[in-house]
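Now for one record.
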Amino acid sequence: MTVLLAYVRTPEGDAALTVAVQETQLRATDAVVLNVTRPQADIDSPFSAEQTLDAVAERFAALGLNAEIWQVPPTGDVAQAILDAVDKAGAELLVIGLRRRSAVGKFVMGSTSQRILLGADCPVVAVKAAED
């Protein structure tokens, strides 16, 4: 069994990373870090995806935890890609970052997080970033 972290380098993703590391330690299990590649126009980080994911893997390794990195190509259905990875990994827990959205934003854009929360076959921890 594993802890699966759906990770994108955002404040919410980094908050979810912290929780995933803690849960992996508490459960004495392995982790899978799933990175769903974002379109280039959405990326504002000066770091490449490889540098970011290497740092994520190192965060687990520094604590003696095994973390496997899975990269998923860009997709129009991120929720389904995450749910498929949950099944493939046999995840006992899924950790996701959750961003704040207005009611109109949820209505117009749909809710990937909601689909994940309702569709996952394991418990889901949804983590918000700290407010500044």
Notes: The longest helix spans residues 11-27. The chain has one domain: 2-127. The mean pLDDT is 86. The CA atoms of residues 79 and 112 lie 5 Å apart.
